[in-house]
Amino acid sequence: MSTLTPPPSTHGPIVLRAEDVWKSYDDGAIAVLKGIDFTATAGETVALCGPSGCGKSTLLHLFGGLDEPERGRIFVNNIEVNRQRDLLRLLRHEVGFVFQLHNLIPDLTLEENCLIPSVAAGTDRRVARRRLHELTERTGLTHRLGQRIQKLSGGERQRTALCRALMNRPKILLADEPTGSLDEGTSAIVFQLLLDVAATEGVTLLMATHDRGLADRCDRLLEMHDGRIYEPAPV
Amino acid sequence: MIFFKLILTNLRRHRIRSFISIAGIAFSVAAMLTVVTILQGAIGMFSGILSSDSEIIVFERNVSDLFFSNVPPSVASEVAGWAMVSHADPVLFGIVSSADHPIITCFGVTPEDARIRNATWISGDRTRFARNSDDVVLGSRAAEFLSAKVDSYVPIGHGTFHVIGILKTANGFEDGGVFMPLGAAQKFFHKEGSSVITIKLRHKEDAAAFKARVKQAYPNLIGLENAEFSRSYSQFKILKATAWAVGGCGLILGGLGVANTMIMSVFTRIREIAILRVNGFSNMQVAGMIFGESSLVSAFGAIAGLLIGTVALFALKLVPALDGYVDATIHPAVMFLVAILALLTGVAGALYPAMYAVRVRAVEALRFE
Known about the structure:
The complex is a heterodimer. By secondary structure, chain A is of the alpha/beta class. Chain A has helices at residues 56-63, 87-94, 110-121, 125-139, 154-166, 184-201, 212-215, and strands at residues 14-25, 30-41, 45-49, 71-76, 79-80, 95-98, 172-176, 204-209, 220-225, 228-230. Chain A has one domain (2-231): Rossmann fold (3-Layer(aba) Sandwich), CATH 3.40.50.300. Chain A is 33% helix and 26% strand. Chain B contains 15 helices and 10 strands.
């Protein structure tokens, strides 16, 4: 399979690259990725569409260093993601994750949840707070800083997750069905915010989604099925 | 601050489980503190008997128990004649029993003995001591449980004795004991000499010279300064070891409680740990969170345990039957050691849970519901 390269308009340095990546579960019984080749450039927004279980999340996890391919190589910022790589640095400074279920810690406040990456990275508290206020202002959450997660709406929770993912200024955002648990209206708002923030921060967005309508608004839309990535056929 | 809140949050989230763990450590600490303090007090009291107005005790070398020591009768008078010695008092220890009391400590002493001279006589006349071979003086606790008064007769062991005085001492063993004239005690216990000789020197700095002379003159005997004796006497060592072992077992149980709590804590927050890892938490940070939680449980447990132990000791001291036997003085070193052991137990209890938490694979844990 040929490498799915970005269109010329978005050509910048390649920041995400997968080379002939294979991955299966249950001792090879369930093959989810079958020789994936993929690249994404800096600042590009890429949507991965496809049915459940087609390997979208797995690919995101591989780029985030949360899992390892059985075969093939994964590169982030031109450095291979493997055991030798400093995975902590990757997670702390290079990539940010947004999940379908917001994955926030319910006993902490919005502010505390957002500050978790800065605690992990040992960022100076004043610097972290300044960044937090910058992000919450952009996402319209400033007035909810002291709220516990249980008291936030679904949209607010997902916006909080977005702030947390961007806390340490990563240049790559891996979003796994970020609007999957939201209603249509909220979903559109959160998605637009995701695109806006990605554009303002110059972040590369790789997003897994079922929603073709949202996916169409990304720079590139790719389809995944049967463990492979395809350019969608023009309508 | 957020790191600390992550630790505290989990304790608050499972309040009852945290409370049970803290209680486990607290009762272990209290048990250890109480047992160690009581036994140290008992050792202190026994040492106190030997060190009444004396600096050195002489006894048979290599005996496992002072009750089996036999110092020849001539030694006391010979040693008393040495220029460096102010006085030498032979003391014979024996265990006797009465109808309702299986163990009564018996002291065979001379009228000049410090225990007789310095004690507070509640009734009776000190000058009458040792006039007759069946005369005894009772400690006030012994008089109480034997229901004896001055001039009454009490059955002790296989004999009946005439009570000529009752005295009060701060030492529980002495206060619950029977004082016999040395000769009567030797006859009663079928012993020729004494168990020990307590020595008062004219100048304390002569201690080394005195011990060397004892070694030279009586190769079968040994002279030890009081502190030296407390450190080296095998019975004390056994008692101390027992106390720490019993307390240690309690702490191990407490530690298992902490381990159980912590492993449950890790299992129930596995997704949370995965979230932290995805957000860049290192192995050290995840383990630190688990150890922090267990240390907090141990610290709360240790504080509560020290309070419970202290109250228990004072309560025991107030029990009339134990009056004089329990020394509730808690040594700061014991408190410190117990607290440190509790913390170490907590940390040890968190070892496996921390290892488990560190091995959590975020990608799998995020699927965990």
